[in-house]
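FORM 7B: Structural annotation worksheet

SECTION A. Query
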Amino acid sequence: MSSLAWIDFDEAERQRAQRIMALFQERETRDELGLGGIRDSIADHLFPGTSTIQTRLRYMLFIPWLFQMLEGSAAGPDQLATEARALENRLANALKAGGESNGIIGRDAGADLQRLPSSVYWAGLGTWGIRLFPGSTDNLFSSMRHLQRNRPRVRESEDAASEAQALQIWTPALPPRPKDILEAARFRLTPDEAQFIIDRLVAQQPRSLLAFLARTGGGTADCRYIWEHPHLADFPGDARSLVGHGEVFSSVMHGASLLYNLLLSEMREKPDWIEEYQSRLQEWREGLDMPAIRAWSLDSFWQAIDHPAHRIRPAAKRFVTEWLALVRSGDVGEGRLTPAARMVQDRERRLKTSQSRFANRAVRDRWTGASGVERLSFRWAQGRSHLRDLADAQ
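SECTION B. Predicted structure
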């Protein structure tokens, strides 16, 4: 019996590092106060495989289809990477030719595109069980010849089924590739393609809210936050509980983000910015559901959001605990010397050290006036977009 192993220092750590690096390019992931691990733990429980820079759902099929077109190539890794980039650029042109305008990755950048669709969707393809190959795109290009050379041989081995599966790049259930994919493509899914994606979600992420909403067709609700969903009461118990935790966490910590922006606005001596954040902080205070906040159990929260892909550091837990105590006491003042202000400044200084906007004037002067000012929504916008694409299949 032969075996196949992917040689890398630590592929899981490599992919985790790539995800972290990618977050710095996502507008909605600005994490000035070190809450990203908590935010992403919740999001990955509710909407696994999504990211804030995904656009349309059919890319989950476009990428496998394009990469399948490379599988017969005898080219080396570098040439395969070049050919893959060319195919992804051609896809953008085909989507424009098909009448699409919104959601095309690379629509304006063309050949200068820095972040290819494959890099945006690669992790999600693995999470949903569409991609079976365990490595990165670079690993795949390096392994392509080995995969092609060994496929015929393993069919005759004693353990042919398991070894053939190990050599698979994509799930065998992948729908067939449209013949005109590089001529005129559309984002609209066919019913068979939509059912395939639903089946993958149910099989690979059965406890996620995304799989539940995909299966029940409940993802078309027009609400800004998942806790405003009209059918929240019908969610599975674990998901409903996590959504409740997410709502309180988002509400409580929003005040810290607003205060952070206010303090910087005052240091920059920007009257318009100061007035804006003072107003928003007052609205935040008035909108707090204090009975729910006082009843919120942090112990239950930490247990509910625990996720193998994310490590939440003790300092982050301590910051949330101390900020929650201030909110419960009603002691979130606006002055620079208040306990709340000191807590926010100390947190950012510890995280950014010499690049802290509170400590480094040059860095502060480059600040454009807004950092993480919206409430955390845990990628509901991306989940809702994908669910609408499922619902619109025809």
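SECTION C. Observations
The CA atoms of residues 23 and 29 lie 6 Å apart. The chain has a mean pLDDT of 89.

SECTION D. Sign-off
Analyst initials: ____
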